[in-house]
Amino acid sequence: MEDKIYIDNEICTFKTTKKLLAFSDRLNPATPVNYANLHAKDERDEQDRRVKSTIGILASDFSNGKGNANIKAQANITAAEARYIYACVEKGLGTLNGEIFSSEKIMGTPDERGYAIVKKLSIRRSSKNSKGEPQNSPWIVTVDNGKSLKVNNPNGSAYAQSGTYQSHSKVMIFLTDQEFFCLLAEVVAFISVWEVTFGPKVMREGRAMLDEAKAAHAAEQAKNPKPQQAAKPTPPPAPQRQNVAPSTPVNTGGMTLAQAMAVKVIFGKHKGRTMGEMEAESPTGVDWYINTYSGKSEIHRQAAQVIINSRNQQQAG
Questions:
Q1: What's the confidence (pLDDT) of residue 86?
Q2: Which of 1, 5, 12 is nearest to 181 (CA)?
Q3: Are 76 and 54 in contact, with CB atoms under 8 Å apart?
Q4: DSSP secondary structure, 165-207, as one string
Q5: Alpha-carbon gap, residue 279 to 281, rounded angstroms
Q6: Collapsing DSSP states into helix, strand and coil, what is residue 36?
Q7: How far, CA to CA in Å, does 278 sit from each of 7, 105, 131, 205, 209?
Q8: Rounded distance, CA 124 to CA 175, Å?
Q9: CB atoms within 10 A of CB 21
Q10: In sequence order, which residues have a C-beta less than 8 Å from that of residue 134 and are 6 or more positions away?
């Protein structure tokens, strides 16, 4: 029996006899409909799951032993945040003092008491200790995990209610200038290679989809030219389109069923197939473009609506 191959996503690690600090790959590309973001930013995939692109941070304190005695705390930073930290380290190497980065993120579904998971991260540099003596390891990385009462904002974001935080694992790691610089240099180098690897594909697919949508819009305008009217003031921009309910049909723009069936799916498990093939194999995938999809491609919404209309007519007949 062959041994299973273990795939390690760890980018770099700092380890002593008592503590460990590791950075890992949790990067994900944006979907083509959001190609200009390059990195996924809490967008939803075809299965309606939220996808983020981050660098994972693990801090571990095993000075009291392993197993249950090993204290672990985790946090995440974005690619942009990693570059910001690295820039601060690079420019202030040997001279920087004070906190250069901190974050507090609350996530997940609250428990029955309203508490949700909180992950805190603090990065600071102190060249001297409390006695005014120079420190050999001035960098202090603190990762703190716990829970807080979760408060939802009207705009959909959430925050931890002040005064309710309860910590359950906190780890502090001390590093020299050289040790911390080398860690961040490896992280930023990995991000740059990742972007060169995955970025072109996302950008090509996104731009192809954009060009397709523009061509479809131009064809519709040519088929149904609007009568000239007196110039009117430019209206304010429309709010971002939200999920379309089944009871609110999409304007199909005169698209035929044949045209709708031929539209290519550009991401998800049906990527590369046509909308017609997806309708034959998994009709819920077509429904997803009407009920859940929040991207910018109107041609995919139109195609889905034409197919659904045809399906409903067949069922009614």
A1: 96
A2: 12
A3: yes
A4: -EEEEEEEEEE-HHHHHHHHHHHHHHHHHHHHHHHHHHHHHHH
A5: 6
A6: helix
A7: 32, 38, 69, 19, 18
A8: 11
A9: 22
A10: 127, 128
